[in-house]
Every structure is written in structure tokens, then in C-alpha cells.
Amino acid sequence: MTDIRSPLVRAGVLEPGGRWRNWGRSESSRPRVVARAHDVEEVAETIAFARDEGLTVKPIGAGHSFTAIGATDGVQLDISAIDGVLNVDGTLVTLGAGTNLYQLPSLLEPHGLALTNMGDIDRQTIAGATSTGTHGTGAAFGGLATQLRGVTLVTASGEILTVSAEQNPELLPAAVLGLGALGVLVDVTVECVPAFVLSAVEKPEPIGTVLAEWSERIAESDHFEFYVWPHTDTVLTKTNTRLPIDAERNPLGGFQRWFDDDFMANGVYRATLNLGRAIPPVIPPLNRLSVRLTGDRRFTDVSTEVFTTSRTVRFREMEYALPVEVIPEAVERIRRLIDEKGWRISFPIEVRASAPDDLWLSTASGRATGYIAVHRYFREDPTEYFTAIEAIFREYDGRPHWGKMHTRAAEDLAPTYPRFGDFVALRDRLDPDRVFANPYLDRVLGA
């Protein structure tokens, strides 16, 4: 039980822990203590408290990782109160680490700025998103961490460490995507771009055409992705073109957005998932119906309204980063595997692309990258499906997304990351006593 004499208890920072579950319901834990820090000093005091009590500390964001990266039986550190814009210097914007991505449109709009690229989910905190390697799509664009120009973190010793081009620059490629293993992020500085508009074209196309044209599509489009519906020969393609902020807009109407993105993509889709779970033979015809009822629309709107979508149907996900040129072959192998196994898969397979970068633990480190993500409804056991597909991914030197389900461990992850050993050495230096450890980090980085 937490010592009631602690000044952190009196300040309302510490409270007894309870059961925690992530969004996808794939992981849970029971922290002994929950700390709700409101500033950097309370973060440092929480870390000192944990060390004195012999406990570990894990910062937690929105819980959108499907792995146990945020799980702990020690101190769960909630930094959601450390949010908002802290400073703006031209296109450099410093944000509190607890800022949720969905807050950014209203925070950046007064400054005429936007993130250069985003994924399709905006529930995460910016610290959690960058720390796990969240990314969008676009062969010329990197993940969120590549947009960071500086971070401030509190280390295991309580030191407030600034990492930027001016201070400790050698640590920047590790600190911006650090898995929560190096310290607690308290702020991040993002290189934004002038706000812009996206012209979106979404339409169903034959899978053979899209796979044959994969290299051309990602080279010619600003942002291209597609969704493979199992048990069909059709994919839903999404092509977004960047336009200046003063370009003419043709946004989705309120009713159409609600009908497409809320009613159909969430409400009706949830009902079909439950029906398919109860009666698996109906999944193939339901998938064919979904292809006909979704997509095939054009609209133009501010970037955040196009990049992100509402996702209320819970699922579990595994995503791997592969060399970009092998994507068509890997997709075809997955489709054949589904047919050979006789599985009934209701969720589409998501395929995206990303530019290479030089971040130590980035899944796109040192190579142009394609991403393939597979999903299962959260009420279904994904083990057999994910395990078999992971074996395919490993044949292509695939790298698992740090925040999505996988079975990899440090000994077989190290060879695929050129700077893996450097990251582990930095962890040893900044957290020798493993204050920020948990079983997931012990597995993927070593104890």
C-alpha cells in the first residue's frame, strides 16, 4: 500500500492502482500504484518514489498499443495532464507529451500548421505514438518519429535530459523512438508544415491490377494505400494528393460522413463481425457485399479530415515492415494461405508504404518500406492466423511494429536493426537498474 505520508499522495498524484486494459483488450495488468503527474517535477518525484519503493515505472498513453509495452505491476504513470502547445518557433512546435493526436487540429490551426503525415487513428498520445513507431503512408514520408526535432525526457536517475540538434544530438535517433525504455517523455518538438488540403480518391479495383502497379502507384502518389478483402478479388484503394491550403474544397457532407464512417464502417460492420463470428460461412459473401458498399468516393478537405477515421470496432492487430519491393509477393502468399487453411477472415488486410529513415529502432530504418497489417475482431482468437502470417513476414526480414502483436524477441530482432546494439547500450547507460522495464521490454530488448 502506498505510504499515506508521501507528499505525492497529499498532492493527489499517487493513488492505489487497479485493473488496466488496453484498447484492443489483448493485454491487461494491475499496477500497484497509479501516478497522475501534472508537470515535469511530479514526473521526477514519481520516479524517485518508485526507486525508493523498489518498483518499476511505466508511462501510459491512450492504451492503443496491442502489445504489453505499457503494462506494469509497479507504478503506472499517467501524463495526460502534460499536454497542449508549450512553444511555437516558426514551424517548430513543442507539445506536452500527453497531447492526444486528435487535439492537434485545433492546437495547430491558429498557427497555420499541420503534421506532415499521419496514420488513420488519432486517439494515441503523441508520446505513445512516437515511442512505438506509429506511421502513415507515403513513399516519400517517414513515420511520426521522423518529424520530431527534439524531446525532453526524465531519466531513471531523475535527470531532465534535453535531446535536440543543439543538446545531446547523438541521442536523437534513439530518443524519438525509444519504446519507453530510456526515460519518460515529457515534451516533444515537432517539425510541422504549413496547413494543407488533401484530395482523396477511394475506389474498389481488381487486386491483380493494384499488385502489378504497386511500385508505380506509391511512386506517383503522395499517399497511397489499399485494403485487401479476403475471399474476394477486389481491393479498396485510397490515393491522397497534397494541395495548398487555399485549394478548393469539396468535403464530405455531414450525413455522408456519418453514414460512411460511423453507421457503415462501425455500426453495420460491428453487426456483420458478430454475425460472421456466429456463422463463419457467411463471411465471404459479407466481404463481397462490403466491397460493394464501401469506398468509391472522392472528396477534398483539410489534411486531418482525410488522414484519420473513426474506429470504434475493437480489434487486434499485427503489422510488419517489409522491404517495399516484396509487398505484392507477400500479399499474394497471405491470400493463398487463407484459402489453403480454409480460414474465414472478416477484416481486410491493410497495405501501406514509407520512406527510409536513420532512426535506430524504426521499422523503416535504412530501407524503403512497405507495411502489411492483419487484424482480427477482438472477440476472436488471432493466434493461428497471426502465427502463420508472421512466419511469412520473417522470410522477408520483416520487422514487427513495436505496438502491435508479434512473438519476436531480442535475439532475433537484433540482426535486422543495424543500431540495435547501440540502443541497448544507451538503455544500459540511462536505465542500468531497469526502472522502466517490464516483461515486454525484457523480451524485445533483453533483460
UniProtKB/TrEMBL annotation:
Domain of life: Bacteria
Domain FAD-binding PCMH-type: 26-195
Keywords assigned by UniProt, alphabetized: Oxidoreductase
SUPFAM superfamilies per UniProt: FAD-binding/transporter-associated domain-like
The keyword Oxidoreductase is assigned to this record: yes
PANTHER family for the chain: D-ARABINONO-1,4-LACTONE OXIDASE, L-GULONOLACTONE OXIDASE
Annotated protein name in UniProt: D-arabinono-1,4-lactone oxidase
Taxonomic lineage of the native organism: Bacteria, Bacillati, Actinomycetota, Actinomycetes, Micrococcales
